[in-house]
Design goal:
single chain; alpha/beta; Rossmann fold; four-stranded parallel beta sheet; 10 helices
């Protein structure tokens, strides 16, 4: 596990009788370490959603699995009488989940695809970096990537997913930790009549970005560019609950401040 992983999350893995350690390197270096170890073992296999040259088949399967989330959400929306989402905010680490969701909806509604915003942690925003460059190439984020959004602390994009995202996503956003923390508190204590949602750091950040776009006057231009208004039907995916109960309590109960 990469530098910055919490002891609680390590303990969850150890409880499954796995051998696991927290290393002093980032997520992408841990992937390479695991691949090196797998190569030393007869029939060793790397199960990983980061794709690179020569390692594309398994990441493609994982992206297809992520696509099932999009398919199920689409089915549920139709059961509620909603034709399609007008907007989707989806989080990204290496981009596999985002690619699976984007790919599904682009194919499901080719004539009127939803407007998609991909959200990353600002310290690990490799997709945002590639989008800002605007040349279609992949860009990496190096070194430590300190963020409470552990599931998004990835600095090297999935090459397969980037090919999808760069051609279809409307907006790439890089969010600081306080956006995720604020969203966790808002979801845990919603306005009267709305259901409570227990969402972890990486799961809540898309809601946080949407709220900032809708309420912060500094982002009125982005709100208009995204065409967000009272008729919008926004789909979000909360990909984790309180997977680290101690940190969740620090943020939601104790109001721990983040920048």
């Amino acid at each position: 596990m990469p530098k910055g992983s919490t002891q609680n999350r390590l303990n969850h893995i150890l409880a499954e009788n796995a051998a696991a350690t927290i290393e002093e390197v980032n997520y992408d270096a841990c992937v390479r370490m695991a691949a090196t170890e797998a190569a030393k073992v007869k029939n060793g296999v790397v199960i990983q959603d980061t794709a690179w040259k020569g390692y594309e088949e398994i990441p493609s399967w994982i992206m297809q699995g992520y696509g099932s989330m999009a398919m199920e959400a689409d089915e549920q929306l139709h059961q509620l009488g909603i034709d399609r989402p007008t907007h989707i905010f989806v989080q990204a680490g290496v981009g596999s989940l985002a690619g699976g969701v984007q790919g599904f909806f682009a194919n499901r509604y080719p004539k009127c695809p939803p407007i998609v915003c991909v959200v990353e942690a600002d310290t690990a925003a490799c997709l945002y970096k590639g989008a800002a460059a605007g040349d279609g190439a992949e860009y990496n984020v190096e070194g430590d990537m300190p963020t409470i959004m552990a599931g998004l602390a990835c600095g090297e994009p999935n090459t397969i997913s980037w090919d999808i995202l760069k051609d279809h996503v409307s907006v790439f956003a890089a969010a600081p930790d306080w956006v995720a923390a604020k969203a966790m508190r808002m979801l845990a204590a919603p306005i009267k009549g709305d259901p409570q949602v227990t969402s972890g750091e990486s799961g809540a950040v898309t809601f946080g970005v949407q709220c900032e776009v809708m309420t912060n006057p500094d982002y009125i231009g982005l709100k208009e560019a995204l065409r967000l208004d009272g008729d919008s039907r926004v789909l979000l995916f909360s990909t984790e609950g309180d997977t680290d109960p101690e940190r969740y309590q620090e943020i939601v109960w104790d109001g721990k401040d983040y920048k």
